[in-house]
Amino acid sequence: MDVISAGIAQAFRLILSGDQEIVGIIGLSLFVSFSSVILSTCLGMPVGILLGTHSFRGKGVVLRIIYTFMSLPPVIAGLTVFLILMRRGPLGYLQLNYTPTAMIIAQICLVTPIIIGLIYNLVREKAPVVNRLGITLGAGRLEIMFLMIREMRIGLTAAVVSGFGRAISEVGAVMIVGGNIKGKTRVMTTYITELKSMGDYSRAIAIGIVLLIIAFVINAILYNFQEREGK
Amino acid sequence: MELEIRKLVRDYGTKRVLDLESVTIEKGTRTAIIGPNGAGKSTLLNIVSRIDVATEGEVVYESEDPRLVTQVFQQPYMLRTSVERNIQYPLRLRNWPEEGMKKRSNELMEDLGLLDLRHQKAWKLSGGETQKVALARALSFQPSLLLLDEPTANIDPATTAEIEEMLLKINREEGTTILFVTHNLAQARRVCNRLLFLDKGKLVESGDCQEILQNPKEEKTRRFIAGELLI
Q1: Which CATH number goes with the domain that contains A201?
Q2: Nearest chain A alpha carbon to B148
Q3: Given B67, B71, B79, which is nearest A151 (Cβ)?
Q4: pLDDT (tens digit, 9 = 90+) per residue, A62-118?
Q5: Each residue of A16-43: pLDDT tens digit?
Q6: Cβ neighbours of B90 in A, within 8 Å
Q7: Do residue A132 and residue B77 have CB atoms under 8 angstroms apart?
Q8: Residues spanned by the domain of A210
């Protein structure tokens, strides 16, 4: 118990002291997570909307694959990206393994299916009524598309935030492709794992608290948005 | 002539839900469409408003602008914005100036007793209020043809009376043609001057509303009217 309370006290001292290493790690974590979520949203949102509004042969198979990838174990995503990017792999010439870019790619593999799946379900439920309304009020195709995005803004935001939650808390994939290299690819989750194995619990708790604060802030923003829009 | 229906067929899989030879709706008329469940009444409205597509045949409109046809549903969808902005939405699509939009929405809100609700969130309204907003929204751009699919089902008598009064007013003052699906024969008598009786997708009888309701020529119509009046 003493270890934990002492760890928490030391954690706050570390955070407040502005420890350069910790600041760098937090910055890289946020950069990797935000980048992967932004790119996943750009990929996943149109795909989710198209899947929710169109029927085509093989759609059932595509959806089953997406649902499977929604619960893809991070280590498998990490291993796959690592094998593709390793020196002898198909994209080895890019020399991306052990760089933040590889970490972003691995996280995109994890986050995009979540965004597609959540948006697909949202659109499937709401699109028919919004589409029907748009047509009967004289909206064109593009105007109906904008209307859908506007009407589903709460659900779309929730899907993106869920993706961010997956990205910021993920450890397996970024560990494999990033390698937890100090000052280069070390992020909060991989650092916690290393600190724990080294027995440096206070630093591990400090990073854990920061991770929790970030998750809290992001979810608080979403909650406020939902409250403002939904009330 | 407001619109002409020519050999209109709609199949869902192997089931034929609509099979109409030829129907003409004259400009400025108020036509009730009655018939038992599964008669094809809503399918007919949906094809006329272009949210469904006929398997065969066509609907010819007098107006070349398809945006002059609109529909109000039994359970209308309210945009996630205020009552006033819901009513103004079709006008924004048509690039009306701000002043004109305000004037038109004020007129409609006044006629339907919605002025006090103008800043309310539209998706939080009661069933009757929602239906009045949906009607005001549909009428905002002065449609040439207004389609109504059981708009007063599950609505209290006072609100029903307000809606009926509004329909008669816009028909009288703006010459709007009305196609009105209803199960309520007393309502058909109050609001409409023409009547179409459909059964199993086919037109059984059409003509003057009062005349058919008093002296139906066809046995099917007679039995339906007798049954409905008993209820």
Answers
A1: 1.10.3720.10
A2: A136
A3: B79
A4: 999 999 999 999 999 999 999 999 999 999 999 999 999 999 999 999 999 999 999
A5: 888 888 889 999 999 999 999 999 999 9
A6: 137-138
A7: yes
A8: 2-230
Return phi, psi of residue A140, to 5°: -85, 180
In B39-156, which residue ranges form alpha helices assigned H by DSSP?
41-48, 83-93, 98-111, 127-139
User: Domain B3-230, what architecture?
Assistant: 3-Layer(aba) Sandwich (3.40)
- Dihedral of the alpha carbons of B186, B188, B193, B199, in degrees to the nearest 10: -120
Distance, CA of B75 to CA of B89 (rounded, Å): 18
Distance CA B94, CA B88 (A): 10
User: Cα(A151)–Cα(A49) distance, rounded to whole angstroms?
Assistant: 13
Which residue from A minimizes the CA distance to B48? A136
Domain count, chain A: 1
> What mean pLDDT comes out for the span B44-49?
95
From CA A231, how far away is CA B123, in angstroms rounded? 10
Element (H, E) at B18: strand B15-25
- The residues that bridge with B205 in the sheet, in sequence order, are B197
